[in-house]
Inverse folding.
């Protein structure tokens, strides 16, 4: 809600009766409404653009000559926990890349701590600079068979429907099987955008999913899959994550005809990739390099998500809109020079002025399992193996044979009952040692892959001690670790430290012989039961 | 809100576990999301599309082979009172033209009866077949200087902000002058779409108007005017009304680049034009004939308004969307053959099944002025005249000279104080007699134009007797009339009768020598103080 006083101030700035709080002078504006590039000044009043024109006086001015101004970008679907840092650190990392809005599903932390996690993210959002829309995590646990740290049923979620949208609805079997709790959730959130998650779902099942109100999908891996979903009325999110990298395959869709129904997102993106490649700016750069129309691409980064989520005051550089803008030295390359969020320049001063982050105490000490021994990591009994591939969340159901077989184990870590599931994996290229992680989508049990049981036990026990994180062990001894004490998912340290530790961890992981660039991400998705085709669950190898 | 039972039924239809309530078979679907034309069947469950595909069983089927299916159209901005019939009759007239949604500003009746009028329209909407979104009339009276039948200030409107959008905000001077009541209204509705009305507003004033949240405009009369508004972030409504006919001038804007920010509307359209030319179907036909891309045109008719107003379940033929669809025998000509609204075929049976229309008693007997005499219609004192032109709401400020001068008078009719304003008019071509109307935007005082005072008095007194309407008098005697007893604005008769009476009235009006096709519409807009340049107010000739 805006106040009459705020409206009056905007009128006065627009009519040049008082100086703007900030004038951005001489930029070339990329107008996503018309596609025009025009030289103009922006007069900002408080958090909003009050006027676009020329010759405004300002209490502060920014010389933007030679730069191109575009509206701030939106990450239309992300799990901040996947960047291993708190929401406060997430924006310190991502805002400088031009990400001024994000829609997050806090379902990683929610799988550990339930509604307390949702409430904490919402409190974080209040203190943050960027617009963080916290969704109601729809599938905690991801499937009823999962043993997670919490259960969010329809009764728990319904009170959130007044001001939140429903996060990615992964329980497709629950829809098709008309599970009463599933239908109650969907009914409670009807009329709001309901996020989808429907990899390879098509035909009758896709019709059913859309018919119950699922409005978008970020799991498309081919143009044909995306086109079918567009035809069924879905908005398609083009994903540029650390594991799920679908943008290159889907870039041909980024046309003026379709771009209003396309958004960009990261889903899960680790801090090293953000530091080295970028965030939504990277997705823009990549799509334009692949030949997509820049207007279509920038629309999908800024205007389309605002339209999809019903934010009337984001996505354009126009009066009345929130002053979220990115100054670029190169439009096609999406080279971000300066970022303004709600009318303020993004930088350490702005971050330091935020209120203290809400208390993290409820998320400490969440790895609750007994000390493990080599005997816990006996060879799996199945004759099938889970095949992983760099850059894809999809796994294969393969015979347990060949010279690239490794053992994997999943240990229940949210308290009783004690359970361990075991399976063969292929594609890691492990020759010795072990990797362990308490990030193990979506229930975040303790997940270990290794070539010898002693190393597996050592890595797992290290995480038990740290309250969660990532660890590498070789010859039965831990050689590298990244503690993630908040829910076993997030560090309490600055993002720079986390990125450094992660880089060190990856180097250490190479000693195991792994051929994956980012083995901890593949490890983290190994247990995810809502993505085809083969998974590691507490029951062991599972075909899904 | 949808119920879990409704969702379950849709799932069962999509998965072919039970027959659809209705199957539309063999139509060519125009998919506004992708622009594709494909042969497919639609399976309808209750009010919604449950699936798009082939081979569904249905309790009822429609053979649509050879026809093209498009989503139902939206009239994005209309005043139903301008069609001279009740909302129930309005949909009997407009639904067969494919108009399955309408956004109405009931500000004509609100100027007569205030919040009671708004509540009545909302009650009507509950019983209607089409989706009628009733806005909160923002400017009653249109300007503070007006003497209308009611005053809707911020305090009266604020309680409506929870579920209504704010109707066309005409009081631009109030925004620029920071009128407290104006700013309070805009603040109360911030975050919701605020309709605009800003003919020829540009530059700093346009910035100010957009800065306070006005989101669209339906008054553009040129491409340049519309482009400036699009650049300032507005959605532009292309109007195809009876007086305001801007579509032909603006059709070049209807491109794939811009169509997401363009909607079609009628604003004010009389029942004869709807019967003879059509409604939104006419606008579509006209735009395509002028060379616009059919995909852009149909999007502006169906998808763009849904996006603008945030209706997530309208504007596409896709599962989960409301089954509002139009079957056409010709896509480019927009030849409507059959219409389905909320899954039911539109026809007399569906209209007859509506609940009774809410009571009209509060709107009877609203013409409250004394009996008039020839002496009340003395010649005006100003040496300026109001120039009217066929097909435009804009008027000219002209010298009171030439052989086409006529007298006009405006009589306060909502009770004391008694006032009469007089002005010269040019452009009617009157040679004898008089025309009178209680439709006189927006305060709806009694408006008379004539060549002799006796005829003016006779026509005015006839309307006093009927409780409002239109009348023609020649040689001091009434020769034709159309009573509009509901608020002096709407008939209580079926639309067919009203159209016939209106046709008869137009023929009778020709005896006065008028050169206007539709002199009563020009008469009705003569007093409108929010459109440039010259107007008839209770103070007489007024330059605006």
């Amino acid at each position: 809600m805006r106040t009459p006083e705020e409206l009056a101030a905007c009128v006065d700035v627009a009519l040049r009766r008082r100086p703007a709080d900030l004038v951005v002078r001489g930029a070339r504006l990329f107008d996503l409404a018309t596609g025009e590039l025009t030289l103009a000044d922006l007069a900002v009043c408080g958090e909003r653009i009050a006027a676009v024109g020329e010759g405004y006086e300002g209490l502060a001015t920014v010389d933007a000559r030679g730069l191109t101004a575009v509206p701030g970008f939106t990450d239309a679907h992300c799990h901040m926990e996947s960047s291993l840092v708190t929401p406060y650190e997430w924006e310190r990392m991502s805002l400088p890349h031009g990400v001024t809005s994000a829609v997050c599903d806090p379902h990683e932390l929610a799988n550990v701590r339930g509604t307390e996690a949702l409430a904490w993210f919402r409190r974080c959002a209040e203190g943050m600079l960027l617009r963080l829309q916290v969704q109601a995590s729809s599938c905690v646990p991801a499937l009823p068979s999962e043993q997670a740290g919490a259960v969010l049923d329809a009764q728990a979620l319904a009170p959130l429907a007044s001001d939140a949208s429903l996060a990615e609805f992964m329980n497709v079997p629950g829809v098709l099987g008309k599970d009463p709790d599933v239908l109650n959730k969907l009914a409670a959130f009807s009329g709001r955008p309901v996020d989808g998650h429907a990899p390879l779902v098509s035909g009758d099942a896709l019709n059913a999913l859309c018919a119950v109100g699922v409005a978008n999908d970020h799991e498309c891996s081919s143009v044909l899959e995306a086109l079918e979903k567009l035809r069924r009325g879905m908005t398609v999110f083009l994903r540029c994550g650390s594991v799920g990298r679908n943008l290159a395959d889907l870039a041909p869709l980024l046309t003026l005809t379709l771009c209003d129904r396309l958004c960009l997102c990261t889903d899960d993106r680790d801090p090293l990739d953000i530091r080295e490649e970028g965030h939504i700016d990277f997705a823009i750069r990549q799509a334009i390099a692949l030949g997509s129309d820049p207007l279509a691409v920038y629309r999908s980064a800024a205007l389309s998500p605002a339209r999809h989520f019903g934010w009337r005051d984001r996505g354009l550089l126009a009066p009345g809109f929130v002053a979220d803008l990115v100054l670029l030295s190169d439009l096609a390359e999406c080279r971000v020079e300066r970022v303004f969020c709600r009318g303020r320049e993004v930088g350490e001063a702005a971050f330091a002025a935020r209120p203290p982050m809400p208390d993290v105490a409820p998320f400490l000490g969440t790895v609750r399992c007994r000390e493990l021994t080599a005997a816990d990591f006996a060879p799996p009994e199945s004759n099938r193996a889970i095949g992983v591939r760099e850059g894809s969340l999809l796994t294969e159901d393969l015979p347990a044979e060949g010279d690239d077989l490794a053992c994997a184990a999943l240990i229940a870590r949210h308290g009783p009952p004690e359970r361990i599931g075991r399976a063969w994996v292929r594609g890691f290229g492990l020759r010795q040692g072990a990797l362990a992680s308490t990030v193990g989508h979506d229930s975040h049990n303790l997940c270990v892959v290794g070539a010898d049981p002693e190393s597996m036990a050592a890595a797992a026990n290290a995480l038990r001690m740290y309250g969660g994180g990532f660890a590498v062990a070789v010859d039965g001894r831990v050689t590298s670790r990244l503690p993630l004490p908040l829910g076993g998912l997030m560090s309490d340290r600055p993002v720079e430290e986390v990125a450094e530790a992660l880089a060190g961890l990856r180097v250490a992981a190479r000693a195991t012989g792994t051929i994956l660039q980012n083995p901890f991400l593949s490890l983290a998705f190994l247990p995810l039961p809502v993505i085809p085709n083969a998974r590691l669950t507490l029951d062991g190898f599972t075909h899904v």
About this structure: The CA atoms of residues 313 and 321 of chain A lie 4 Å apart. Chain A touches chain B through 71 residues (CB under 8 Å). Residues 294-309 of chain A form the longest helix (16 residues). The longest strand of chain A covers residues 22-30.
